[in-house]
Structures are given as C-alpha cells and as structure tokens.
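Researcher: Please translate sequence to structure tokens.
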Amino acid sequence: MSTSRARTLRQTATDAERLLWEAIRDRRLNGLKFRRQHPVGPYVADFICLDRMLIVELDGGQHSPEADAPRTAYLERRGYRVLRFWNPDVLTGMDTVLETILAAAEERF
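Model: Translation complete:
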C-alpha cells in the first residue's frame, strides 16, 4: 500500500478515528507510541504501536468480520495482534476502548 494512500486516509478520518487519535497521540496512552494510517504490506492499519506489535482497527458499516478476515489473518501472520472496534464503541465508550487497548499492549510486552 502506498504512502500516498495512507496520507489520504489520514486527511479523511472518520469522527471515531479523530476522537481515538486525540486520545492516543503523543504518547497519551501510558506512554505508548502510536502511528495512524500506517502501511503494513498491502494494507493500511488505522492505528499501530510498532513497539508492541499492536494494531487497532476502527470499523464502520462497510466492514464485516467475513470481509475483514483475510486482512486480519495477514496482519496476525506477521506477528501483530489486531484489535477491532466498531465506530460507535469509540464514540460512546471511549474509556472501555482505551482500557482494552492498554491491556492488550501490556500483554505484548
């Protein structure tokens, strides 16, 4: 996946993506360094913590577990743990989302 595609995705972020990015950027989540819209092979991860090999994906109505399964499998084969949240989870339950991300990151260390 090209960096230009990742750049475009950064500029067209959803409300949920913007909200989560504000919560985790600049090492705001327990000092963890996240990048957003980061290319990984043929895909672009919504959020990635390279130190912990952790990817956070936010899914809207265009996603389904079946459609996302090949992407998730590809990332997991490369050693990443993939967390998926629906956009409404972020918009209405940010604390729970952040707790889940933090717990997964701590397991990976």
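Researcher: Any highlights?
Model: Strands lie at 35-40, 43-49, 54-59, 81-86.
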